[in-house]
Every structure is written in structure tokens, then in C-alpha cells.
Amino acid sequence: MSNTKTGKIIEILPTESGTSKAGKPWKKLTFAIDTNEEYNNIVAFEVFGDEKVDNFVKYNKVGKTVDVEFNLSSNKWKDKYFTSASAWKITNANDTETAIAQATEMIDKVFEPADTLIDEDDQNPLPF
Questions:
Q1: What is the pTM of this model?
Q2: Is 101 helix (H, G, I), strand (E, B) or coil?
């Protein structure tokens, strides 16, 4: 199940790294956003994997507004549950708004506005 949150990055924690039981290296980064919602407005996400962590550090900084797509997962350890929000796609929130504006502009160029399709002098605008 995928979820989405939009907010301003308020903190980026230092990158964590280690070696798995299988002997493979791993990287993890945690960052938090402020969603400006009335309740539960601070949300922390994890980014896991070398390439994802490197790309996050390269393209994001504190203060940037982002759209985060993430999955929630919980694990039980010693009779307690721990929940993590794993971000799998992080985009500039302004990119979404820009894409919508560009699509709207393109549609307006391709299709004639509805108000110009109706002749005001015609009493019966239906073709039948």
C-alpha cells in the first residue's frame, strides 16, 4: 500500500551505514517533513539503499517542499511494535504543480474553448 505526504523538509539526519548479515554494505538516511496539518504535522521517513540515499542528498536540502510517496511497515520486537515510513519516491512539490499547469495549457491549445462553440444568435444550438 502506498501513501503520499507533501511538506517542507525540516531535518536531514546523518547517513547511517553498515554491513548486513550476508556481508553486503547498506546505507540509510532519515529525514523529517512538516506537513502544516493541524495534528501530527511532523513525519519522519527513511530512505534505504546506496543510490536512493545519494540521490536524496544530491537533490534535496532543508527548506525544500517535497511530495513523498512511501510505504508503512511494522515489526514486532520483544513484545513491542515499531513502525517505519519508507520513502520510495521523493519529488519536488513544485514539479507537480508545474506539470499540471503545462498539461492545462496544452489542452487549451488543442481544444477550442466551449464558449466559442455555441453561436449566441442560434436559438437552437443542438444539431438535430
A1: 0.70
A2: helix
